[in-house]
Amino acid sequence: MKNHDFEQLCIFNLARELEYISNTIVIKNIAVQEDCTIQGFAFDYGKVWMSEKSPFLRFVLIIEGKAEIVIDNNSTYLHSGDSFIIPANTTSYIEANQKFKMLCTSIRSK
Questions:
Q1: pLDDT 10s digit of each residue in the chain, 110 long?
Q2: Is residue 4 assigned to a domain?
Q3: What CATH number did the domain enclosing 104 receive?
């Protein structure tokens, strides 16, 4: 697996780089290291990203659209520009009630 889909030291617009594909969650790696991963996601309508309990804390930023995030059975909606922290070792999922794009930074919790 490549460490990243983007060239270092180059300006890019993540919202424009991520394209929606029908019935798919598109994932682009921005940076991948042992303790930290930065990824861009484009969710088509109806797609769900499930996450089992993980040692990673996740910072999520919605860059386009609207998403539903459910953490330990507590639901909240995020709109473009909103961000959220998903604590490590929690069960969560993110659902596309409409198309949306997000940035997710995962950091291994010590």
A1: 456 677 666 788 899 999 999 999 999 999 999 899 999 999 999 999 998 788 899 999 999 999 999 998 899 999 999 999 999 999 999 999 999 999 999 999 87
A2: no
A3: 2.60.120.10
Q: Tell me which residue range forms the domain holding 34.
A: 14-108
Q: How many CB atoms lie within 10 A of CB 102?
A: 27
How many domains are there within the chain?
Answer: 1
Is 7 among the domain residues?
no
Q: Which residues contact 84 (CB under 8 A, 6 or more apart)?
A: 59, 60, 69, 76, 78
Note the pLDDT tens digit of each residue in 48-69: 999 878 889 999 999 999 999 9
Rounded to whole angstroms, what are the CA distances from 13 to 19, 40, 102, 109? 12, 11, 12, 29
**Is 31 contained in some domain?**
yes
- Give the number of other CB atoms < 10 A from CB of residue 100: 25
